[in-house]
Design goal:
With about 260 residues, this protein is of the alpha+beta class. It is about 25% helix and about 25% strand. It contains 6 helices and 11 strands. It has helices at about 15-20, 75-90, 125-130, 170-185, 200-210, 220-225; strands at about 35-45, 45-55, 65, 70, 95-100, 115-120, 135-145, 155, 165, 230-235, 245-250. The longest helix is centred in the C-terminal third of the chain and has 15 residues, at about 170-185. The two termini are about 35 Å apart.
């Protein structure tokens, strides 16, 4: 099927578009604000952690929130997410992926704000460095009240065990990030983004357990990982341990289609 001309016989060309755009009034339609919010995650000791920023301004001043920002009119979404991470967490060059769009009309009391949420993954060393880098920044353990990939909001727990109510719908955004990680863990190498350049099989297992929220059988996990083709031995072993040093691996394989 071929398209029909739109102006009575002649196909529209660039000059027609230029004429139309020169008189186009964008104010005819209401336009929402667009923001990005980034769920920054790491795994340590079999637990998931996130980094939050205390809001200084109203609304919801004093509440903890994900690093985020409004998107500039000429700014790509990915650039806005990277800018939010660098400005509010001091992090650059980390794994960032678009997660989900949150657009409930009342999610922000200021105006209609649509947030294109992202999630970012870092190893514990960089995570700790980011947490120390800015005022009003703190780390929280993520407590997941649902199993598997059920989804839903999660809880942010501070070092003293207190649960904090998060700003806006950021508990839902964090929950969506956990759900995404759980869904991708068995077919994409997202777990490797939560580790350093080299790691032991036990450290990799602890990352999987942190994401899944449950313990895994050590022997079956080792067999599955070694057979996956994703691991490459470094030829070195861990140092500074009081037991037999374990072999170190790195991510060096291709993801199966």
């Amino acid at each position: 099927m071929t398209g029909r001309p739109l102006n009575g016989g002649a196909a529209l060309d660039g000059d027609d578009d230029a004429h139309f755009l020169a008189s186009y009034d964008a104010s005819v339609f209401e336009r929402p604000s667009v923001a990005v919010d980034v769920a920054l995650l790491t795994a340590s000791g079999g637990e998931l952690f996130t980094l939050l920023v205390r809001r200084r301004d109203r609304p919801q001043a004093g509440r903890w929130a994900l690093p985020g920002t409004f998107v500039g009119l000429a700014e790509p979404l990915e650039a806005a997410a990277a800018r939010a991470l660098e400005k509010k967490a001091g992090l650059a060059g980390v794994f960032v992926e678009q997660l989900y769009t949150f657009g409930a009309p009342g999610r922000d009391p200021r105006t209609r704000v649509i947030s294109v949420a992202h999630y970012a993954l870092v190893d514990p060393a960089r995570f700790v460095e980011a947490a120390r880098g800015g005022e009003g920044v703190a780390t929280f353990k993520i407590s997941v009240p649902w199993g598997g990939e059920a989804g839903g909001p999660v809880r942010a727990v501070d070092e003293g065990g207190c649960v904090h109510a998060l700003a806006f719908d950021h508990a839902d955004i964090l929950g969506a990030a956990v759900k995404r990680l759980r869904g991708k863990l068995n077919y994409a190498p997202v777990g490797f983004e939560l580790l350093g350049d080299s790691f032991t099989l036990l450290e990799l297992q602890r990352v999987h357990e942190a994401v899944l929220g449950r313990p895994l059988n050590k022997d079956s996990f080792r067999r599955r990982m070694l057979a996956s083709g994703l691991l490459e031995p470094t030829g070195q072993s861990e140092t500074g341990v009081g037991h037999r040093p374990a072999s170190l691996y790195r991510f060096g394989g291709a993801v199966a289609p």
